[in-house]
Amino acid sequence: MAFVSQREASGAYTFSSRPRAVENRSRYREAPEQTQYGNIMYDRRVVRGNTYAQRILPTATQVELEEMQRQQEKRNKSLAHRRAQEQLRVRTPEAVLGRQHMEVQTELYLEELSNIVLESDVQCQTDAFLDKPDTPLFVPAKSGVDVATQIQEGELFDFDREVQGVLEVLVGKVMEQSLLEVMEEEELASLRAQQRAFEERRNAQLNEVQRLQEQERRHTEEKERRIAQQKEVLRKEKEIADKIAARAYTRQHLAGLVPSIFTSLRCHGFFVDTVQTDVETNFMPWLMNEIHSTLDKRFAARSVLDNIIQEVALKCFL
């Protein structure tokens, strides 16, 4: 296996890890661990650098790289398939409290179980890695036609003579810019002064408007209060007049109503004499009962006397 960078490949990016020793693994397969993904900017497999200086590899090398990529993809697929089957495999449930699982052989022939994996050393000789040659500097291909020009004395730029115009332009531009800045500052100061004066006038007008509004509000409240007081006075006067009229009408109506009511009540027996009532209710019934009892006694005596006289008369005639 070899490490091939992106500069050496002309097609899609292909990665092959460097050879390394196999780690010591346990005899039994463990549950797969989840891959922790990080920042790809710190991944060694990400190749950085320019893309215009790639080297074109021979066709045979490209075919070998493609074949190695296909084999790596097959290995990754088979490994993923085995991991999926391992996850789907039914496992023994966890032991209940107070018990523990033990490894028991169920094969026909027993064998010794041990956590130590048998290892053996194997050696092989490989060719030494060749040093990669330095990448040559990129030199663009020459294009165009060479042309020579002859320059006479005095045709080139004379600094002492030409710098005067440049300085005049620079100084004039600086002075003009400075004057513009000063004029702009004066204009801004004038605008600020006008703005302050306008704000002062506006504040004075706002204060005057607020004073007038407050005065108008006080006048309105005073007017409403006076109207309410006048309405209250008129209401009380009307109420007093209604009371006086009702009292006069009541007096006029009750002037002849009271005697007639008393007369009617007296006629219907609501106003009675206590002596007459006592005589009629208590004395007269008692008197009548006494009279009836006396008359009954007299009637009984007379009846007895009549019976005696009748018996005597009958005896005498017989």
UniProtKB/TrEMBL annotation:
Subcellular localization is given as: Cytoplasm, Cytoskeleton, Flagellum axoneme
Q: Which residues form a coiled coil?
A: 188-240
Q: Which InterPro entries match?
A: Radial_spoke_3
Q: Where is the composition biased (Basic and acidic residues)?
A: 20-31
Write out the entry's keywords from A to Z: Cell projection, Cilium, Coiled coil, Cytoplasm, Cytoskeleton, Flagellum, Phosphoprotein
**Entry superkingdom:** Eukaryota
Instruction: Answer yes or no on keyword Membrane.
Output: no
Q: Where is this region: Disordered?
A: 1-31
Pfam families noted in UniProt: Radial_spoke_3 (PF06098)
A GO cellular component term found in this entry reads: cilium
Family, according to the entry, reads as follows: Belongs to the flagellar radial spoke RSP3 family.
Q: What is this protein called?
A: Radial spoke protein 3
Q: Which organism is it from?
A: Knipowitschia caucasica
